[in-house]
Amino acid sequence: MGTAKMLVLCALISCPMTGTSQTIMPTPHTFHNNVAYVTGGNAARQSMDIYTPTGASGPLPVVLLVHGGGWNSGAAEPFLDTWASLGQGSFAIAAMNYRYNNVVEPLITQVDDVKAAIRFLKANASTYNLNASKVGLMGQSAGGHLAGMAALTGNQIFLGSASDLANTQNLGFSSQSPVIVTWAMPPETPSGNATFVLSNYLNSGDPSFRMFHSTTDETVNISFARGFRDAATTAGVGATLTEISGPHFSDNSTRNANAPAIVTYFDNQFAAIPEPSTVALLVVALGGGLLAYRKSNCR
Q1: Could you tell me where the DSSP H helices lie in the chain?
Q2: How are strands ordered across the β-sheet holding 239-244?
Q3: What is the pLDDT of residue 11?
Q4: Whole-angstrom Cα distance, residue 134 to residue 144?
């Protein structure tokens, strides 16, 4: 990688911690704070906040937000504070924390946290009035990279050690996600480690990427976003890039100006996903037992 294209690690989060326990959403929401998506895990980092529109009929699609912060800082609540305008969509929102970059196999571990969070939402969909077949992803900066890794390796339940607690739970559910939006996403890490280069995982059939990136981003150059878009297109994976202006962590006006397009994208993509049939839902609920019954009794 040339010097001019080196990524700069950014340890800043998108906005300071507000100190509030609940994000102010544009429409009334029901809050479930500090929900552990790994039972017995890191209580502070392996947790999420779940926000469902109050009074909405369901089950609802859900967007899992993955915060930025250079892979070693940031948190769920301030990230959602900056994107509260997403609350105008007809979907629930889950804003997750993940373990910081200070453990063995750090980025693998963080991708596995995203996968564990996806599986948790599917496994507990009925508890939170969610649609298990419609779990989308949105990540900003390093969070966009982690979300991208999870989206492009959806056929793998986890990437790291099978003994990692995050990789031992809700394994009966897929970690696949059909919809992804990224904001200022670095498609690789500063080290250039091939394991974490997103284009190495592109395959036809992967979910399409809806990307937003600033032409004046001084942390992750716009050339990276354009390069990933082109690589995705070549691989037969949809990738639409909206080029905006402003710094890496853009201001509220830029985010709010683009939020309606993001909300519309999620709403449209979720609407296009067919609902599972009643029989399929029963098969999942009964762990395949109904399928065995039908095969033996419905000849």
Answers
A1: 76-82, 106-123, 142-152, 222-234, 252-272, 278-285, 289-297
A2: 29-36, 47-53, 92-96, 60-66, 130-140, 180-183, 209-214, 239-244
A3: 31
A4: 19
pLDDT of 235 strictly over 80: yes
| Amino acid, res. 77 | E
How far apart (Å, rounded) are the C-alpha atoms in residues 74 and 71?
A: 8
Using DSSP's 3-state secondary structure scheme, residue 235 falls into coil
Q: Quick one: average pLDDT of 254-282?
A: 85
Over the stretch 17-51, which tens digit does the pLDDT of each residue have? Answer: 333 446 777 778 899 999 999 999 999 999 999 99
Per-residue model confidence (pLDDT) at position 275: 84
CA angle 45, 50, 52 (to 5 degrees): 170
Structure tokens at 197: 């280069």
Report residue 253: phi and psi, to 5°: -65, -40
pLDDT in tens, 159-176: 999 999 999 999 999 999
Q: What is the mean pLDDT of residues 195-221?
A: 96
pTM (predicted TM-score)? 0.86
Q: Which of 189, 257, 258 has the alpha carbon at shortest distance from 220?
A: 189
**Cβ neighbours for 202, distance < 8 A, ≥ 6 positions apart:** 152, 231, 232, 235, 237
Q: Looking up tokens 């993509």, which residue turns up?
A: 269
Distance CA 113, CA 111 (A): 5
How far apart, in whole angstroms, are the C-alpha atoms of residue 12 and residue 33? 23
CA distances from 112 to 88, 125, 161, 185, 210 (A): 29, 20, 9, 18, 22
Q: What is the DSSP letter of 277?
A: P
The torsion angle over the Cα atoms of residues 84, 273, 227 and 114, rounded to 10 degrees, is 60
Is 3-297 assigned to CATH 3.40.50.1820?
yes
In 3D space, the residue among 54, 71, 55, 67 whose CA is nearest the CA of residue 94 turns out to be 67
Please name the residue that has the structure tokens 């009643």: 278
Q: Which residue has the tokens 């099978």?
A: 162
